[in-house]
Amino acid sequence: MNGPDRAQSEVIGVVLLLGLTITAVGVTVALGSTALGDVQSSADVQRIEGAMTQVDSKASLVAHGGSTSQRIRLDPGRSADVRVDDEAGVMRIEVEAENETGGIETVTENVTLGAVVYERGDDRVAYQGGGVWRSNGDGSWMVSPPEFHYRGDTLTLPLVTIDGVDGRLGDDAVVTGTSKHPEGLFPSENVSNPLLGGNVTVTVESQYAEAWGRFFETRTRANVTQVSPTEVRVALRTETVHPTLSAGVSALGTSRLEFGGINTLYADSYDSTVGSYPGKGNASDNAVLQTTSDFHLTSKGGGNTESIEIRGDLVAESFKIPKGQAKKKLTITGEKRVDDSVGSADPVAGAIAERIERVRDLNLQSSGASTTGFVHDDGTVRTIDEDTYVDGDVTVSDGSTLRIEDGATVHVDGRLDVSEDGSDVAFDGGGGDVAVLVEGGFSMRDGSTLRARGGGSSDLFVDGAVGVRDDAAITAATGTRFELYNTGNVEVTHQARIAADDDVTGNLWLYSSGGSIDFQGAPSDGIDVAGVVYAPTSEMTLTNNMTFKGSFTSGSFTFNDADLNLHYDESLATLQPFGGASVPVVSHLHVSRHRVTIEDD
């Protein structure tokens, strides 16, 4: 009598099956709709990112004078909103500068950035300050960068700001310029280039402050502070103290220290407070070679490499030394040390510019003796013993001598060229420190000599290139400190000599902010340097034979069939460039505002 019960169970089973099927179909449709919506939303955001990048490109074209107007296709879709918000975001630029009385005052510019903003739910994409930014509930990030350039000692910031009527934009918009010329913010009446002291602080108040902060961190070595979720501050390193000279060779800006072009390299150390370099047999094992990045010994030892012997330590962030013959050619008596704390390449251009400006500010054309440029070639001694302005080039040749003494400062508004055996320039600091500013290039060749003597300090400032060629020489006598500063390229060739007497390398310093420093020694008995070469942002090329005593620092090194003898002077380990003084890093500031209007077309 179970038949009716079984029939009822079948009906219930069918009902349950249909219910489960309907539920499954409903869940699938719901999940599918959600997934489809997510995909559609993601596609819309990616599409609008591309549209905002076009806004960036075309607004920049209009802002910088490449076009009077540009049209943009936005196509935001029905469920999204693209609008102009001309009050969105503020950049505040604060510059501390010297006033007329020598004090420090702060000059501030507040710039409203404005924005073109796309919103869909929690997703937001915006064009602001010349960059494209994106945010959601989890934070913000950069899509394309603004125009913010911090290179060497110069900050360039052409700010594109947005005007317009607040409101929604449709499928199409038009960008027009609001002024034929940008508004210059810095330099200004109260802040001139180069900046001689003070700080530069940039603060951004924005919904995308987090992304702005990360951008600043990647483009500067500045101190970046997230003040709040909507405010970030970057304090540019306008002043720095350069580190002590703890190494004989330092590559501070290179992607790698690549020893492929070296035939031979020998490095050791000595202490000039004890005596001059004692020769390889009596030298010490305290040499240090370091790089901020990779030490890379190319395969097969660089082809012609015979040996690399470092009597001391080799310091790098990483080592790439292939096995086999290359590894056998490398000898290190000390540590092969991995260290990523080596200081980065702080610019010297600001410090050099500051010292040059000190001489210019003396206005010797009005306050000192004055003479026209001259050729001194009669074999006699010509003496300058008072502050003097020279209008034009100075040439010393044919065994003649130009002597500068008694604390004189000389401003040469032209070149200084010294040539031929027996011709020399003497800086005599016995009667007071001597300083010479050369506005053009400085060149020595053919056995000519520049000699600093008499004790005290002598400085040569060259706002241009320096060439020391053939067997010319720059020397500093015992007890005399000589410093050469230049802003252009440096070329030292053949058997030139740049050396302090008795190998007391702390008495002779060469500072350069030039793009390249080229040492081209003779194949044998080449260049001899006993001093400090400090050019942390320059590219240095070493060719053929040369000997360095002291310490030399560059941004990068390239070796061409080089035969190098490196003798680190341990007495430099406690010394700092520029005498340990705080020196400016940002010395030139170029900030301008470029207004554009973006409206519905």
Characterization of this structure:
There is one protein chain. With 601 residues, the protein is α/β, with parallel strands linked by helices. The chain contains five helices and 48 strands. A twelve-stranded parallel β-barrel has the order 30-32-35-38-41-44-46-45-42-39-36-33. Strands 1, 9, 10, 12, 13 and 48 form a six-stranded mixed sheet that branches. A six-stranded antiparallel sheet has the order 8-7-6-5-2-11, with helices on both faces. The chain is globular. The model is unreliable at 27-37 (pLDDT under 50).
In a few lines, what is going on in this structure?
The longest helix is centred in the first third of the chain and has 61 residues.
Q: What is the makeup of the main sheet?
A: 12 strands, parallel, barrel
Instruction: Determine the strand fraction and express it as a percent band.
Output: over 45%
Number of E-type strands: 48
The helix content, as a percent range, equals 10-25%
Distance from N terminus to C terminus (CA atoms, Å) equals 83 Å
What order do the strands of the largest sheet run in, or round the barrel if closed?
A: 30-32-35-38-41-44-46-45-42-39-36-33
